[in-house]
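Form P-L/3: holo structure prediction, ligand flavin mononucleotide.
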Amino acid sequence: MTPIGRSRVLSIVVCGAGPAIEFAGFVKMAIDRGWDVQVIATTPALAFFDQAAIEALTGNPVRSQYSPPGSPRSRIPEAIVVAPGTYNTINKWALGIADTYALGVLAEQTALGIPIVVLPFVNIHLASRAPFQQSVKSLRAEGVSILLGHGAFEPRQPRTGGEGYADYPWHLALDEVDGMVGTTDEDPDPDA
Ligand SMILES: Cc1cc2nc3c(=O)[nH]c(=O)nc-3n(C[C@H](O)[C@H](O)[C@H](O)COP(=O)(O)O)c2cc1C
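OUTPUT (holo model):
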């Protein structure tokens, strides 16, 4: 286990849903918890936040497409958070579709056994659909932690974006990651 403050790499996959307009706050929260954050955005997500601001915060490029062959590769993270996770990405990921960079990363890294936490953002209608419920079930069966339901993300009525996203529980995703990878409050060798 890598202690806090020592370059624990967290990949955050951000999808195109309302809370992504407040994505910079989540990235800051993760950095404050000692993560070296690398952001992977779906193409629709890029419309929701300021890419340059996120790159300035993390010191890492925001990746949304495959790089040309021979380019530097992203680092394999210690954990992955998908937030906000859309209906679209969750369903495609569960089915094994990998037609975007973000889905390609998720497809492969799910198989590596890296801790993955999803904080969805779907309305009650999308959440009630059988394909979505099946996707949640099958990703959970593969070991993915999906923070959906009572005490986690609870789907809202549609078109409630005007009420803002203050209640979107970003912090739960980081708490869950810490629970999955473990945290170290004490430096094992304080003189090192
Ligand atoms: C303003 C806006 C808000 C959206 N909010 C949501 C949402 O809350 N949840 C969701 O699943 N999709 C939402 N969508 C639709 C997704 O952006 C759309 O399904 C897109 O194809 C998702 O792609 P991605 O999964 O690759 O990010 C929203 C789209 C727009 C333009």
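COMMENT: The beta strands are 8-14, 35-41, 79-85, 116-120, 145-146.
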